[in-house]
Amino acid sequence: MGKLLAALEKSVVKSPPLWLMRQAGRYLPEYRQARARAGSFWKLCMTPELAAEVTLQPMRRYGFDAAILFSDILVVPYAFGREIAFEEGEGPRLDPVRSVQELDLNPLHWHSRLEPVRDAMRRVRAELSPETDLLGFCGAPWTLATYMAEGRGSTDQRAAKLWGYRDPEGFAQFLEVIERCVAQHLVAQLEAGATAVQLFDSWAGSLPEKAFAQWVIAPTRRIVDAVRAARPGAKIIGFPRVATLEGYRKYAEETGVDAVSLDTAVPLRWAVTQFGSNVTLQGNLDPILLIAGGRALERAVDELLEETQSVPFIANLGHGILPETPLEHVALLVDRIKGPH
Amino acid sequence: MGKLLAALEKSVVKSPPLWLMRQAGRYLPEYRQARARAGSFWKLCMTPELAAEVTLQPMRRYGFDAAILFSDILVVPYAFGREIAFEEGEGPRLDPVRSVQELDLNPLHWHSRLEPVRDAMRRVRAELSPETDLLGFCGAPWTLATYMAEGRGSTDQRAAKLWGYRDPEGFAQFLEVIERCVAQHLVAQLEAGATAVQLFDSWAGSLPEKAFAQWVIAPTRRIVDAVRAARPGAKIIGFPRVATLEGYRKYAEETGVDAVSLDTAVPLRWAVTQFGSNVTLQGNLDPILLIAGGRALERAVDELLEETQSVPFIANLGHGILPETPLEHVALLVDRIKGPH
Asked: Is A261 helix (H, G, I), strand (E, B) or coil?
């Protein structure tokens, strides 16, 4: 069993498992080369041999304890038959969804459209040593809804919020459809070789309390149940980014996830006191600290290890690694987490 | 005494005082006309008769319980002698600050550069009835530092964080200089007729716990002390937007502010339980709910009033009102807060 899986099973290990959100990404020169060869981000995602290759790049360079499949949260709108366009220098674009009727609701079509992701997963699993864990992932329904309603990344999640506030039933139906596709894709990733899966709810933090309960916690709870019904004992990490501490508490207690990924602002001492060994914690170094490096980074890593030494823990950032991160700072982080032994 | 001041003195009133962040703004057709006549946003800010006029516009239309002077948080970098440029369709730009030596550190110069703000304040005070409160404001040092270090609004506050992580002493000195200018400008606004002042720390939420203590709480504490030394009993509202709940708790307990403005995600029940009548609460309707209108808005307003009925409270949004907000939704909000009496 890998160290990440052990932590998800609530083992407390001396030097915690380490991986980084977006570790297969633009800070790596070999990634930038692969991306240039592929011609587009989306082609890199959807071509199994290329996706597998960039997934393995950071493993070769740094020996992280877990690989995370290179993919994108927009594979779910793609599964629904939406076109995804990537303009150079801009984020992804898709036609805004106005009603569930605009979506291809056939689960067999979802499954066949996402075959390249499973193919990539199988390739990566075949390359990794047995003690190296492999993560699959999916966007959570609320965050996917913000992209799908807006047609792009949004700063204030306006289109999805307006839909939800004005037409609560229609929006609930939209989230439920997304839920089904997400659960199916998570199960498929586990079947294709993922040790565990992570749900990214990047925009969970902008919701008032009630909406958070309805649009973040409830769908996540149903997804966890559906995945466990299909794959008993499946390990699931949830990331309700920038939720309030009350939001994190309820999310951890009510969704059934095995681990909660914490953003940079969450005080680790609070989380350790709150959750003890009930939920594995993951996080939460500031990605900008990893750009800064030096004494500030060293001190923060030492504090992270100190504060989490008594609980099941996965070392990570509080958000994705940034393209400008110096390679040697990542090496320093890896060395310091692994320790002198 | 106005209702806002009464709430800041910890009175519990039956229908709470109401004002809206950015209430003098683009959702008002009369504002858009004034802005077009002025030719630029900055000219509107720095021309006392125009700034006074747009400050009064929402008061005439809606009769809010408090006016807030139309100004901008970038008047502080301007006081330091930095040029502020507003490109059409983009946010404000200024030359990034790399060291305190680049700033004009003469408080007499700060004072004279900000005379137009005080002039506008005096004009507004002269127009308002005595029972109508008038707010001044300033950006808080951390948030101002993010703009000044980046040279523009930033999504991840990178330049300021990098400065702070790499050069903690230099950055502390930078914050201290900003602190002095902020305190002076708050005092000046109170002398010019403001009933109370609000400190906007819009980017407080992105900081890890220790940085929050050093860069948000400590400077705010020193500003509150300095303002009260000059103006005993001065009333100060603080807004550490998107802080964690632990952050809000410490901010309220340690800075000495009279009131804490809450962002949209903060559960009011948590705040009421946490603070009781020790700190006045302000907030926190979702600005997007005010665009949505309808039953969702009505229900949220009723819950807001219900949850805060036993504590000193100022009704407001959790963030600034958005340009797309329908005028009739604001009227509905005002009516519902004021109640049938």
From this structure: strand
Tell which phi-psi region holds residue A151, choosing left (phi > 0), alpha (psi between -120 and 50) or beta. Answer: left
Residue pair A265/B205 in contact by the 8 Å Cβ criterion: yes
Regions of chain A where pLDDT drops below 70: 341
CA distance B77 to chain A (A): 24
Cα(A65)–Cα(A53) distance, integer angstroms: 17
CB contact under 8 A, A165 and B264: no
Cα–Cα distance for residue pair A218/A255, rounded to 1 Å: 7
Measured between CB atoms, does A327 come within 8 Å of chain B? Answer: no
State both tokens at B256.
């000495």
| B250 lies within 8 A of chain A by CB | no
* Pairing state between β A85-86 and A92-93: antiparallel
Q: Between residues 254 and 293 of chain A, which touch chain B (CB distance below 8 Å)?
A: 264-270, 284, 286, 288-289, 291-292
Residue B315's pLDDT band (boundaries 50, 70, 90)? very high
Query: In angstroms, rounded to a whole number, what is the distance separating the alpha carbons of residues B18 and A337?
Result: 51
The per-residue pLDDT for range B160-205, each reduced to its tens digit, is 999 999 999 999 999 999 999 999 999 999 999 999 999 999 999 9
The interface pTM score, or ipTM, of the predicted complex is: 0.95
| Residue B318 pLDDT level (bands cut at 50, 70, 90) | very high
Helix (H, G, I), strand (E, B) or coil at A2: coil
pLDDT above 90: residue B13: no
Name the helix (H) or strand (E) containing A33.
Answer: helix A29-38
b/e code A305-328 from CB counts within 10 Å (16+ = b): bebbeebbbbbbbbbbbbeebeee
CA distances from B39 to A100, A203, B34 (A): 45, 37, 9
B70 min Cα distance to partner chain A (Å): 24
pLDDT at A3: 96
Nearest to A208 among B156, B286, B292 (CB): B286
The residues of B annotated with a catalytic role in the active site are: 22, 26, 35, 72, 147
Asked if B267 and A209 come within 8 Å (Cβ–Cβ), the reply is yes
Is the model more confident about B155 or about A226?
A: A226
Q: Is the dihedral of CA A337, A137, B244, A151 positive or negative?
A: positive
Nearest to B331 by CA among B286, B304, B301, B306: B301
Is the Cβ–Cβ distance between A3 and A13 less than 8 Å?
A: yes
As separate numbers, helices (DSSP H) first and strands (DSSP E) second, chain A gives 17, 9
Q: Are strands B92-93 and B85-86 parallel, antiparallel or unpaired?
A: antiparallel
What token pair was written down for A61?
A: 């360079």
pLDDT in tens, B79-110: 999 999 987 777 889 999 999 999 999 999 99
Q: What is the DSSP letter of B215?
A: I
User: In this structure, what are the phi and psi dihedrals at residue A282, rounded to the nearest 5 degrees?
Assistant: -135, 135
Q: Which of A229, A225, A215, A280 has its CA nearest to residue A255? A: A225
Instruction: Please report which confidence band the pLDDT of residue B54 belongs to, taking 50, 70 and 90 as the band edges.
Output: very high
- The DSSP string of B7-73 is HHTT---SS--B--TT-SSTTSHHHHHHHHHHSSHHHHHH-HHHHHHHHHHHHHHH--SEEE----T
Q: Is residue A214 within 8 angstroms of chain B, CB to CB?
A: no
- For residue A162, the chain B residues in CB contact (below 8 A) are 288, 291-292
Q: What is the pLDDT of residue B1?
A: 81
